[in-house]
Design goal:
The complex is a heterodimer of chains A (334) and B (271).
Chain A lengths: L1 H5 L8 H4 L2 H15 L10 H25 L3 H9 L1 H15 L19 E6 L4 E6 H27 L2 H12 L9 H31 L9 H32 L18 H22 L9 H22 L8
Antiparallel strand pairs in A: 1-2
Chain B lengths: L1 E11 L5 E11 L3 E5 L6 H9 L9 E3 L2 E2 L5 H7 E4 L12 H11 L4 H14 L15 H13 L5 E5 L7 H17 L4 E6 L2 H4 L4 E6 L2 E6 L1 H6 L1 H6 L6 H11 L10 H9 L1
Helix pairs in contact in B: 3-4, 3-5, 4-5, 5-6
Chain lengths: 334, 271
C-alpha cells in the first residue's frame, strides 16, 4: 500500500540519497515550476511548442540521469505510468473540442489561442464533419509530457528519501508556523507513527482476512456487492484493533515521558552539505533561465539561443560527472 | 529503603465497582517482585497506577516519597520505567535506533550524546547488530529487548514488566528472563516489579504478591507461596509441574529440597 502511493524507496546510497530531504523537496518544486512556464509568443503556436519541448528536454535529461543515479526501479516507473493512458485519452478528447478554429477564437483565452494546420475527421453516417487542429494534439502531448516528468520527479524524491526523512523535512518547513500555534511537531509525529504502523496494520489485515476466510467469508469471488459486504468483516475487526493499538501506544509514549508540548531534542538532524548548495543553485539557475526565456520572448531562432542551450547542457553534464566522481554509489542491505 | 508505598490503594474505572479494593504494600529498593494473579485480578490496573497512567486517590500511593499528581508525574516517570505486554504497540520509532532514542528525546538528551547511549544499551540487550532494522523484521522477543533497552537508557530506579513475556514464544521468554537476571547483576540497586500470570516465571523473584479480585490474596517468598498450592489453585493459578511434583513427593515422605530446575530435582530424587 505504502509503495503504491509513495513509490518504493530504493535501498542504495547514491549522492541523491545523501542530499538533504529539504533540498530535494525544494528542488523538485522549482523544477516543476520551470516545467509549467508558458511561452506565449505572437504568431504561430508552433514556436511555443518547440520552446516547451526544448525546456522539457533539458529537464527530462536531468530527470533521466537522476533516475539512473538513484536506481529508480524502471518497472515501478512504467507501472505508475500505466494509469496515465486514461488521462492521455481524456486530454486528447477535451483538446479536440477546446482548441477551436480561428473563427471561434477568443484572443483573451490562451486555450483558444492556438490554431493552424488541421485535418478533418468525417463520419458520413452521422453526417459529422469536424476539423481537428494539430494544435490540439501538440497541446495534449505538452500536458502529458509535463505530467510524466512531474511523476518522474516525485518518484526520484520518494525513491531516494526515506518517508521518515520527508516527515522531518516537512516538520522543518512548517516550523515557522509554530509561532501562530500551528501544531507542526504533532503533525510530523502523527505522520511518522502512521508510517511506522503501515506494515504492522498490513500484517494485521492479512491475519484478519485469513481468519475470516477460514470462517467462510469470501473476499475474492462473487458479485461486487457481495465482496463489498465481505469487506465489512475485515474493516470492523481492523478498526477495533487499530483503536486498541492506539490506546496502548499512547500509554507507552506517555510512560516514556512524551509530552507533545514540552521541549524535546531530536535524534535525527537534517544536515545541509556543499552538494546541497550546488544542487539548489543549479535548479535555481534552470528556473531563472526559463523565466528569462519566457519573459524576454526568446525563441529557438533567436541568434544566441542555441549557444546558451549548449552551455546549459554542458554545465549539466559536467556537474553530473563531477558529482559522480565525488560520490560513490553502493547498495545498502535492506 | 522503600521506593514505592501503597496505603489502602483503591481504584475504580466506573465509580461503582472497584478494580483495586484497598491494597497496601511497600516495594523495597533493589528487590525483584512478582505480582501474580489470573485475568481480572487487577494486576494490570496496578501497573498503570504505578506508572501514573491512572490517577490513584489522594495519599494512597507514593513513589520516592512523591505523591502521584500532575506536578510530580514527570519526576516519577524519570525514576519508574515500564515494559508493556504487546511488543508491537510500544515500538514507537521506525527503527531500533529511533525507538531507543525516543525516550532520550523526551528527556532532552543532547543529540550528540545519543549515539553513544544507544550503542551502550543496545549492546546490553544484545541488539547492537539490529540498530537499523525496522520492527516488522524483528521477532517479538527482540522487540521486547528493544523496549527494555529504551527503558534502561533512561536510568530508571524501578522497572515494571507488565506481562512483558505473555505474547512471546518460549525462546523469547527465556531470553527475557536471562536478560532480567543480567540486569540485576549489572545494577544491584535496580528494583524490578514483574506482573505476570506465569507462576513459573515468578519463582525467580525475591517476593511474590498474589492478587485476586482486586485484593492481595497473599504475599511472601516464592517457596512460601508455592508450598501453598491448594490455595493457589483455589484462585485458578496453576502450580508449575516441578513444584507440584516435589510437593507430592514430600507428602509421600521422599525428601526433595532443591526443585528450582528439572536437573536439580532429578539430582535430589536420585540422592
Amino acid at each position: 500500500m505504502n509503495n503504491m502511493i509513495l513509490g518504493r524507496y530504493s535501498p542504495y546510497d547514491s549522492f541523491l540519497h545523501r542530499l538533504d530531504p529539504r533540498n530535494k523537496i525544494v528542488s523538485m518544486i522549482l523544477l516543476m515550476v520551470a516545467l509549467f512556464f508558458q511561452f506565449n509568443l505572437p504568431g504561430t503556436s508552433i514556436t511555443d511548442f518547440v520552446m516547451t519541448f526544448i525546456v522539457e528536454g533539458v529537464i527530462l535529461f536531468i530527470v533521466i540521469i537522476s533516475m539512473i543515479v538513484a536506481h529508480v526501479s524502471i518497472k515501478q516507473f512504467f507501472k505508475s505510468l500505466k494509469a496515465m493512458w486514461f488521462v492521455v485519452l481524456l486530454l486528447f478528447i477535451i483538446n479536440i473540442f477546446i482548441v477551436a478554429s480561428p473563427s471561434s477564437a477568443d484572443w483573451t483565452s490562451t486555450m483558444y489561442y492556438y490554431y493552424g494546420e488541421s485535418f478533418r475527421i468525417q463520419v458520413p453516417a452521422w453526417n459529422w464533419d469536424y476539423p481537428i487542429y494539430w494544435a490540439s494534439i501538440y497541446q495534449s502531448i505538452k500536458i502529458v509530457s509535463r505530467l510524466i516528468i512531474m511523476i518522474s520527479l516525485t518518484m526520484i524524491l520518494t525513491s531516494t528519501t526515506k518517508p521518515l526523512d520527508l516527515t522531518f523535512a516537512f516538520e522543518w518547513f512548517m516550523s515557522p508556523l509554530k509561532l501562530i500555534k500551528f501544531p507542526a511537531h504533532e503533525i510530523a509525529m502523527t505522520l511518522s507513527i502512521a508510517l511506522r504502523f503501515i506494515p504492522t496494520l498490513l500484517d494485521e489485515t492479512d491475519r484478519i482476512m485469513k481468519a475470516q476466510s477460514s470462517r467462510g467469508v469470501d473476499f475474492k469471488h462473487g458479485r461486487v456487492s457481495l465482496r463489498i459486504k465481505a469487506l465489512v468483516a475485515l474493516i470492523i475487526p481492523l478498526f477495533i484493533s487499530a483503536f486498541q493499538r492506539s490506546e496502548e501506544l499512547a500509554d507507552a509514549m506517555e510512560a516514556r515521558g512524551y509530552n507533545p508540548r514540552a521541549k524535546r531534542t531530536h535524534y535525527h538532524k537534517l544536515t545541509w552539505s556543499v552538494f546541497d548548495s550546488v544542487i539548489i543553485l543549479f535548479t535555481l539557475a534552470i528556473l531563472a533561465g526559463v523565466i528569462v526565456i519566457s519573459v524576454m520572448n526568446i525563441t529557438y531562432y533567436t541568434p544566441t539561443f542555441l549557444g546558451w542551450l549548449f552551455i546549459a547542457l554542458a554545465i549539466t553534464i559536467t556537474m553530473f560527472i563531477l558529482l559522480g566522481i565525488f560520490s560513490s554509489t553502493r547498495k545498502v542491505a535492506k | 529503603m522503600n521506593v514505592i508505598e501503597a496505603n489502602n490503594l483503591k481504584f475504580s474505572y466506573d465509580g461503582k465497582n472497584d478494580a483495586i479494593k484497598g491494597v497496601s504494600f511497600s516495594i523495597c529498593s533493589g528487590k525483584y517482585y512478582s505480582i501474580i494473579g489470573h485475568n481480572g485480578s487487577g494486576k494490570s490496573t496496578l501497573a498503570k497506577l504505578l506508572i501514573g497512567l491512572l490517577k490513584p486517590s489522594k495519599d494512597s500511593l507514593k513513589a520516592f516519597g512523591l505523591e502521584y499528581n500532575s506536578k510530580n508525574i514527570k519526576e516519577i516517570r524519570r525514576k519508574v520505567g515500564i515494559v508493556f505486554q504487546n511488543p508491537d504497540n510500544q515500538f514507537i520509532g521506525s527503527t531500533v535506533k529511533d525507538d531507543i532514542a525516543f525516550g532520550l528525546e523526551n528527556r532532552c538528551v543532547p543529540q550528540k550524546d545519543m549515539d553513544k547511549i544507544i550503542e551502550e544499551y543496545s549492546k546490553k540487550v544484545d541488539m547492537f547488530d539490529y540498530l537499523d532494522k525496522q520492527p516488522e523484521k524483528l521477532s517479538g522477543g527482540q522487540k521486547q529487548r528493544v523496549a527494555i533497552a529504551g527503558v534502561l537508557a533512561m536510568h530508571p530506579e524501578v522497572i515494571i514488566f507488565d506481562e512483558a513475556t505473555a505474547m512471546l514464544d518460549p525462546k523469547g521468554k527465556r531470553e527475557i528472563s536471562e536478560l532480567i537476571k543480567k540486569m540485576r547483576i549489572d545494577n544491584p540497586n535496580l528494583t524490578l516489579i514483574s506482573i505476570t500470570h506465569d507462576v513459573e516465571e515468578a519463582f525467580n523473584s525475591d517476593e511474590i504478591i498474589v492478587m485476586n479480585e482486586g485484593e492481595i490474596y497473599m504475599s511472601g517468598s516464592p517457596k512460601e507461596i508455592l508450598s501453598k498450592s491448594d490455595e493457589l489453585e483455589k484462585i485458578h493459578l496453576g502450580v508449575p509441574f516441578l513444584y507440584s511434583l516435589a510437593n507430592e513427593l514430600n507428602k509421600l515422605g521422599i525428601k526433595v529440597d532443591d526443585y528450582s530446575s528439572l536437573e536439580s530435582l532429578v539430582n535430589s530424587i536420585c540422592q
